[in-house]
Amino acid sequence: MVFPAKKKKRTADEENVKKEQTKNMSFIMADEEKVVKKVKKRTVQDDGGVKKVAKKRPREEAVVEEEAEAPAAKIKKNKNDGESAGVAVIAEIEEISEETRKVLAARGITTLFDIQQCAFRPAFDGRDVVGRAKTGCGKTLAFVIPTVERIRARGLTAQKGSRRLPVCLAVAPTRELARQIFTDFESIGKACGLKAVCFYGGTAFGPQCEDLRNGIDLLVCTPGRILDHVRRMTVDLSQCRVLVLDEADEMLSMGFQEDIEAILDALPKKDLQKLLFSATLPSWVNAIVTKHLVDPAWIDVVKEEDGNATNKMITHQCVSCPPLMRGDCIGDLCKVHAGYFGKTIVFTGTKKECDELAANEKLAAIGAGVLHGDIGQNQREQVMDGFRSGRIRCLVATDVAARGLDVPSVNLVVQTHPPTDMDMYVHRAGRTARAGKEGTSVTFYSSNEEYLIRLLEHKKGIKIQRIGPPQPMDLVKAAAVDVVKQLDHVHQDSVDAFTETAKRLIEERGAEVVLAASLAALSGHTRRLKGRSLLSAWEGFTALMLETERGIETPSKAWYLLRQWLSAELHAACKGMTLCSSGNQAIFDAPDEMVSKILGTELWKGCKLFRAEALPELWQREVDIGMANQQLKDRRQQQWQWIQEKRSAEKSGGGKDGGKSGGKGVGKFGGKGEGKFGGKGDGKSGGKSGGKFGGKSEGGKSKGGGKGESKAESKGEGKGRGRGGGGGGGGRGFG
Questions:
Q1: Where would I find the H helices in 574-703?
Q2: Cα dihedral sign for 465, 470, 476, 482?
Q3: CB burial class (10 A; 0-12, 13-18, 19+) of residue 484?
Q4: What is the pLDDT of residue 637?
Q5: Fold: same for 2-300 and 314-470
Q6: What is the H or E stretch that residue 22 is in?
Q7: pLDDT tens per residue, range 408-429
Q8: Which of 183, 412, 582, 613 could form a disulfide with 344 if both were Cys (CB 3.0 to 4.6 A apart)?
Q9: Beta bridge partners of 163
Q10: How far apart are CA 276 and CA 64, in angstroms?
């Protein structure tokens, strides 16, 4: 455990108390002799409490800066390079109760991560805390353990009559993160005699009111749902003593700032401890912290000696790939990096892209689940439970899954586009490589998004390696490993049942052929393996390398050389000439059926043409960071303007799709068409109504829905076709 050196001078009694604490608890004082306990092998944990065993966990430097005025983005770092924060063994910390120790031990947790060590003392003492740690380093337990132990030790539980009132309010930006935090509060709180509940949108309001009437101690919630209770006056927060904001930068951003202000107004003004935690703390958070927190302890265990703001166990890669090929390419990446027994999270920019990508043939074959804001709460819970248990191996999600979620064994994170929010990249990539494990983050980009990749490298200190898409042999090797693991799980009775058939096939075709075909069938490779260009990711193309002794200064020189050697037909079929950083090589694409002819061409002395086995390091033009920043600013402005226009259209049109909604039905028996996505309608007898998810019509009873069209007959009966045609009034027609 690390205690920060306080700036004020201690009295003699205080000094003796501190020395006694150091002796009994093995805490290491920042201004005293460091005590390092070497542990060759110990159990470490992640936020979800899954037991992991590691020989050695790299320990990051921990710093607690006492001054509240220090900007969040400029927290001072420990300059004593190489000095460790030490190991805090839970059994030696007197403030942690025996009940909590048993719960943690049952989850395989015997020591604390750095953020947990450093945050425990100030949080247990009741101080406001601002904490930052890299993803996967146990931030949830960093506030759960000291909060529960402080409530237990100080007797902070409160009652109103026979009903217990909430004394701790933990707020999270997403429902999934709220449920995850609740899991830790529930397990540890229950052991200490405290009742925890979790409130979020999409669930019934009545049972939550019943929980409040029965009495609770720890309340975990999302901003919208707790404000619903506050405005309906169904929750009493007058006795709340602790406020926790997880993913604090997101909670205090423009999207949630008004909600957080409203929540703070409903909480006591005095004796309220505030704990803010996140993996990223932008500089603008400092103004919010200064306004609402009192003399906070700034804790930062993010070691950025190399400038890398992400978990150093993550390998960062990027792939240039056209949008049409991304679904198939992502499916191949899942097979190579995660395989049959691993997990993948794919982040998309929009809900529409999320749905379309999950329907891709390759992703559907490995069981892709969808998670975004339009998914119903019950289905969201089923998807997350399936992903955690391994029934769903690929989760396609929007940024609703980007923050705080801790799912064990996520091997790969894929981003279909580079995010325009640099901090969001850190949170997305942080879903892998948790609790000391390694992981891979792959970002897809197009030519007009390359500047975002360069900005990420510059601002976050990340080295992003450009790679090509998985090749057929990569898929075969990964599949073979998975199939061998599956063979270990086959029951002996099943083996006996197929033995006779196996013997006959071996006699007819040979052992090697039968086994190879079986492995291919088990891994799903029954069709001919198709190659994909390392350079462009297009199927049916092969990346070829051109090398000369004299060097290649420009792509035009490379094209000139090819024109001298190849026929007009072969030359015209090649594309995508790109220089390599070596200075004497270039890489280009050629159709598979022409590769043998191109490689068989007679070349000049000192020149070579050969297949690219791996994507070489490509030449990169210098990027003006200032210009790239301006380009990013313009892009964000365009996105914000588009959002504002869409919202205005929704308000004026009365539906989600702006002008498409709330249309009119005109006709002899027509009326107004109203609905979420109403369309226009006209016709003689009740009219024809078309549009996306048509609506109701007045002047008769007509209901619509979906993409298609609805015709009302002269008798007044309307029938809907397509995906639910729009309503066209007339008599009693239903569209």
A1: 595-599, 625-653
A2: positive
A3: exposed
A4: 85
A5: yes
A6: helix 12-25
A7: 889 999 999 999 988 899 999 9
A8: 412
A9: 160
A10: 14
The 3-state DSSP composition of the chain as helix, strand, coil percent (nearest 5) reads 40, 20, 40
563-581 pLDDT, tens per residue? 999 999 999 999 999 999 9
At the topology level, CATH places domain 2-300 in Rossmann fold (3.40.50)
Spatial CB neighbours of 473, under 8 Å, sequence gap ≥ 6: none
pTM exceeds 0.70, yes or no = no
Burial class (CB in 10 A: 0-12, 13-18, 19+), 101: middle
How many Cβ atoms sit within 10 Å of the Cβ of residue 227? 18
In whole angstroms, what is the distance from residue 524 CA to residue 365 CA?
10
Extract the tokens encoding 522. 């088990």
Structure tokens at 677: 């996505």
Fold for the domain defined by 314-470 = Rossmann fold (3.40.50)
Domain ranges across the chain: 2-300, 314-470, 474-522, 541-611, 658-723
User: What span, in angstroms and rounded, lies between the C-alpha atoms of 337 and 329?
Assistant: 12
Whole-angstrom Cα distance, residue 95 to residue 103? 15
Q: Between β-strands 273-278 and 242-246, what pairing exists: parallel, antiparallel or unpaired?
A: parallel
Question: How does 27-36 read in b/e, with b if 16+ C-beta sit within 10 Å?
Answer: bbbbeeeeee
**3-state DSSP call for residue 42?**
strand
Q: How many residues does the chain have?
A: 735
Which tokens hold the place of 353?
Answer: 């892209």
Query: What residues contact residue 23 under an 8 Å CB cut-off, 6+ apart?
Result: none
Q: Which CATH architecture has domain 541-611?
A: 2-Layer Sandwich (3.30)
Short-list 557, 549, 564, CA closest to 606? 549
For residues 313-342, b (16+ Cβ closer than 10 Å) or e, as one string? bbbbebbbbeeebbbbbbbbbbbbbbbbeb
Tokens of 163: 């009903």
**Res 674 pLDDT > 90:** no
Helix and strand numbers, DSSP H then E, in the chain: 23, 32
* 8-state DSSP, 464: P
Can you give the C-alpha Rg of the chain in angstroms? 31
List pLDDT tens digits, range 615-657. 999 998 777 888 888 888 888 888 888 878 877 887 776 544 4
> What does the mean pLDDT of the chain come to?
79
CA dihedral of 276, 280, 285, 288, whole degrees rounded to 10: -20
Smallest CA-to-CA distance from 726 within 670, 702, 716 is with: 702
- SS3 label, residue 370: strand
| Beta-carbon contacts of residue 117 (< 8 Å; ≥ 6 apart) | 1, 2, 62, 85, 86, 88
Measure the CA–CA gap between 108 and 430, rounded to whole angstroms: 22
